[in-house]
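Bumping with the actual sequence this time:
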Amino acid sequence: VELHGPVYMRFTRDPIPYIYDKQIELEIGKANLINDGHDVAIIASGDIMDFAVKAVNALHKQGISARLLDMHTIKPLDIEAVIAAVDDCEKIITLEDHNIINGLGSAVSEVIAEYGKGKLKRMGVQDRFGESGPYKELLAVNGVTVDKIAETAKRLIQS
């Protein structure tokens, strides 16, 4: 409300779990660190954060240290948080519950390309015509489940 200029916000119809254990203040253009780690960084945006939290917990049980960033603002993107994730982890996964084209994955890939360091895997709705259906089923059709996120992280670390 206080931001002067155009704003775009996405909401879902389905209820989503609250991922923060305390009340926080979101700052436009600044990512929130949900979990620190050094083997892989997962940068997620939107309703998919619940999947990301569960994937990080699954990875932790397997001895993998995963950083999780809540990139609630895509524009302006928190470039410093992306670069810190690349420097500390090198392997990055972006996770979004919509098309991987021109969203969070694209924005992060531009930062990584210009920085000249790091490896990225984008997870989300693949570049295809949209479909209707239950939220979790549509994500699964596009290869986005908690298990697939953890599996992708492990493969990325090994590459």
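The tokens above came from a reply further down the thread. The chain is about 35% helix and 20% strand.
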